[in-house]
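G.,

No rush on this.
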Amino acid sequence: MYTLDSFLDSISSKNPGEDEFYQAVKEVTEVVIPFLNEQGRFKDSNILERITEPERMFIFRVNWVADDGSIQTNRGYRVQFNSALGPYKGGLRFHPSVNLSILKFLGFEQIFKNALTGLSLGGGKGGSNFNPKGKSDAEIMRFCQAFMDELYRHIGPETDIPAGDIGVGTREIGYLFGRYKKIQNQFNGVLTGKGIIWGGSQLRTEATGYGLVYFVNEMLKKNNDKIKGKRVMVSGSGNVAQYAIEKLLDLDAILVSASDSSGGIYIPDGMTKEHFSYLMQLKNKKRGRIHEMADKFSGISFLENTSVWEIETDCDIALPCATQNELNEKHAKNLINQGLKLVAEGANMPSTNEAIDVFLEEKVLFAPGKAANAGGVAVSGLEMAQNSQRISWTRDEVDERLITIMNSIHQQCEKYGQDSDGYINYVKGANLAGFIKVADAMLAQGLV
């Protein structure tokens, strides 16, 4: 018999100071432990201890040369967490906040997210504390090449297939892939998120944001509702937020916010297509700051160094798409007072455990990131399939498959998360559905 407190104490003692990893394990085990204590087939398997320990972790030095000729040193990581369902799959993050705790939390989440897609994917994560902001293209290229000079030893198309994440887009994937190809003298599907003309998939860039909205649409359909006319708050203005906004506008939602690390914008009457076009130019071409939206357009307010979750406005749907732990208990209560009915996580673990508790207690529909933002890794898996066959699917073909996968994830959450009163606890549903698949595969493969 497991007890939650004693198991979490063991996680804390084995992983001191790793608060993010502890938080991710707590969210899963709060759901899984009651289930395990009822299931005979997991008895004496020590399955929780095994599944919360990475299969292997790599930490390495990355030396590179800045434009001024100075030698810079960063730290690189790859956490290969679980391969029970397939080769390790998970992104690379380049950001000053990157440390082992964050990558272990992301890798642990990735195990269950990938399981929910139904594709043959294990879970992993990696990255570096390198900050791409303010760096020239030449500096980013040199860093990526130095990073791959070590990473190549640990990855491969049948072993570990990294993708992008915060700070790693098509440009960085290109530099990483080019270096891998030169070192190994192979052109293969070792990385996903590649450019369309050199092995990438249609819709990969849009997949996480689109998939998020497809999942929200299923949540609303289950309650005989729809997105049209809903007031939606989005945080972030990166890849996930951008394409969630695009799909929301296509479905006639009223989008009232966006943000970056400098603060947030509030658009009382809703974002227009003109606003969105400027946002895409601002973030993807100019690499500018969100306050420029308020400078450009009347009717848009900029809140410096302020979370969008502090804005006082009517809100039906909240989509946190920025970063981990951005939405706290106070924000959750504030949103509920403003009419909130649904939350779906576009980022990884953007809601604190305390905020999640508030949403669940108030019967707000809440979809965790491992379910709601699985569209990105789903299309990465589809990119792997196309690479293996040396073919390319059309945009419509990929979109159709993405919709099918997100609908399937919703069905799994409903199967394992529906309460007797009809409320779907998506946290319970997603964690149980993902865990059962991985745990059963681990038991079937023996003690390895």
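When you get to it, here's the other one too:
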Amino acid sequence: MTQSTAIAHVEGAASVHDDQKQYLTFTVGKEIFAAGILTIKEILRYSAITDVPMAHPCLLGVFNLRGRVVPIVDLGLRLGRDPIGIGRRTCIVIAEVTSDNGTMEIGIVVDAVRAVVDIPNAAIEPPPPFGMRLHADHVLGVSRMNDLFVVLLDLSKVLSKEELAAVRGRA
């Protein structure tokens, strides 16, 4: 296992106002997604990942993060998209997700990290009732950034052990 260089470290960033929250935006393919900044711990340059035999294809392997073993998920595959193509802007976003079994760190590979943005709660619409190619529980809402739509993900649902086990069962 190899260690990677941190691009950014996020220490408990807080909301600017109660009616406005901060989100990390990133791309998967041509789509823009966002996750609440409070779930994001670090952003790392992509580096080698140790393969885990017989794992589901969306689980790329594990990674040594300062002595801790962190599973790494290809977010493109996890969301039913094409796999992330490794390029110079590819990043691993370390997220801390909470489930009934406790809290754990999981890395997600994304095509590129865009920015931390403030999105007022009033600017977040519920996901459309049809046409979304994502599981409804995984989406917190949709917002508009300039002329683009941003899908706000609930990483605790997308990356839960139960969800990943269910994906493995369908493989």
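The CA atoms of residues 49 and 162 lie 23 Å apart. The chain has one domain: 6-170.

Enjoy the weekend,
O.
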